[in-house]
Each structure stands twice: as structure tokens, then as C-alpha cells.
Amino acid sequence: MAEITAATVMKLRKMSGQGMMDCKQALKEADGDLDEAMGILRKKGLATLAKRAGRDTTEGKVVSKLSDDSKTAVMCSLCCETDFAAKSDDFVETANLLADYAMVCSSDSDSEVLAETEVDGKKFSVMMTDMVSKTGEKTELGDFARYTLEGSGVIGSYIHFNNKLGAMIEIETSSDDVSCAIAQVAKEIAMHITANDPKSVDRDSFDPAIIENEKAIAAEQVKDKPAQIIDKIVEGKINKFLADNCLVDQPFVKDDSMKVSEALEKAAKDAGGTAKIKRFVRIAIG
């Protein structure tokens, strides 16, 4: 058996981030081979994932990143079992690197593709396995979205102070000057989304199946009313439901005297142009 020197153990510890005893044991099993020892440590992480497969991952961290030219932005989440692990240096570092992987992923929203994305020759799934062998907790990717502007516009994002909730919004504008002028409003609308959890941008983009289901619920609630007024009551309930759940119709969190659409319209008009919300995503852990 090859001699396991302190220097070799320290080298493996630096490569893997694992504890001294785990590194020494892996080197013994690998007869001093560093690459094989790294493989042993990764298998330890995979074994931990398999053992804890049924555990809930209700803690973690939401991260985001904006490209240097402000044309592309990502938001994604890395989830684990406990708040203690979510605040560990290893987890935070890995979560922050996730945004770099999301920037180069071949998909704009598929977390499975994101897990197999490589940066500097290393898949993110391998990074997760390495980290699991350190934390001992199940870790998995949550939701993921990447937006890229195709013309004039702005992408606003906001992450709540607990790092477990965030939102990203894309707004189309009539000019780049308007985009710059409404950047702060875009961020504030992203904050609004985290707080109010809208289900759609506007009424036209609302899922028809959800509306039909709400109509059925409303009709059941008033089935004992006179037939001639049931349709009117149901219509009123649906209008209230849409007003509550469509982003543009919600009272703006920064100034509830205006709807979100009115706040955006005013900001764009003050900048000499127009703006329209194209899409948004809200990412929550737990």
C-alpha cells in the first residue's frame, strides 16, 4: 500500500473541500491515487443523495445574475433540507456559482439541463454531489429562468432578504432611453411580484382552464340564488378573481393608489415613451 503523506491528504482536502479524516480514508481506499480518491468522495455524496431521496428540500437560496450588457438575466434556486446547511459557506458558494451555469445553459428554463451544464469542464450535478458529501444533506435544483432582451427593454429582479423568494420581470420599451429611466420601477415591480404572487401578466394571458374552474366554483357557491342573477354574480366573482391575480391590475405595492400598469405607464411617459410588461417569473423555496 502506498504511503499516505500529510501533504497528499492536504492536497486532496484542498481539491475536495472535505475534512481531513474523510480525505485520509479515501486515499487509503484509493491506495494513494488522488483522482480515485476524489471519485470515492463523490460516491459518498451520491450515496447520501440516495439515502435521503425522500427528504423535503424546503430551505436553500435563490440567486440571480445580470450580464455585463444588461441584455440577459437569470434567476434560479438551489434547495436543501435545513437552514443551517443553506447558510454554510460551501452551500452559498455553490449556489452563487449556479448563476454562472444558468447563463451558459442550453435551455432557458429546464433545471435538468442546467444540472448537466458544464463550466470549465465540470458539470453542476458533479458540484452538487461534491457538496452533498460535505453537508450530508439532500440538495437539488429548484426553478430556473433566463430572459434575454430582443429589442429595447429592461429586466428587473428582486430577491427577498431571506434569500428564499425572488422575482424577475421583462419589460418592453419604446426606446433604450426609456429602458434606463424605468430600471428602478422594474425592480420595484419585481419586488411587488414577490409580495403579491400574481398568476398572470394580464387577463388575456391568463390560463383559460383556471378561469373555467373558477367559474364552476363561483356557480356552485351561488346555485341557490335566483336563476336570472346567477350569471351576473358569477361574472362579478370572476372579474374580482382576475383583478386580484393579474399583475397589471393589482394595486402597486409602492403606491396602492395606482395599479401596477398605471405606475409603469407613468414612469415610461415621464421618460418620453411607452413600456409594457412582457413576462415575469416568481421563484420560491419551501
Please provide a written account of the structure:
The structure is a single chain. This protein is an alpha+beta fold and 286 residues long. The protein folds into 4 domains: 6-51, Orthogonal Bundle (Helicase, Ruva Protein, domain 3), CATH 1.10.8; 53-148, 2-Layer Sandwich (Tetrahydropterin Synthase, Chain A); 151-206 and 246-286, Elongation factor Ts, dimerisation domain (Tetrahydropterin Synthase, Chain A, 2-Layer Sandwich); 208-245. It contains 12 helices and 10 strands. It has helices at 6-16, 20-29, 34-51, 83-86, 89-104, 111-115, 124-135, 176-181, 183-196, 208-221, 227-245, 260-270; strands at 59-66, 72-80, 118-119, 122-123, 140-148, 153-159, 165-173, 251-252, 255-259, 275-284. It has a 3-stranded antiparallel beta sheet with strand order 1-2-5. The chain has a 3-stranded antiparallel beta sheet with strand order 6-7-10. Strand 3 and strand 4 (122-123) form a beta hairpin. The protein starts with 5 loop residues before the first helix and ends with a strand.
- Give a count of the beta strands, DSSP E runs of length 2 or more: 10
| Radius of gyration, whole Å | 25 Å
CATH topology of the largest domain: Tetrahydropterin Synthase, Chain A
Average pLDDT across residues? Answer: 88
Low-confidence stretches: none
Topology readout:
Elements: H1 6-16, H2 20-29, H3 34-51, E1 59-66, E2 72-80, H4 83-86, H5 89-104, H6 111-115, E3 118-119, E4 122-123, H7 124-135, E5 140-148, E6 153-159, E7 165-173, H8 176-181, H9 183-196, H10 208-221, H11 227-245, E8 251-252, E9 255-259, H12 260-270, E10 275-284
Antiparallel strand pairs: 1-2, 2-5, 3-4, 6-7, 7-10, 8-9
Helix pairs in contact: 1-2, 1-3, 2-3, 3-7, 5-7, 10-11
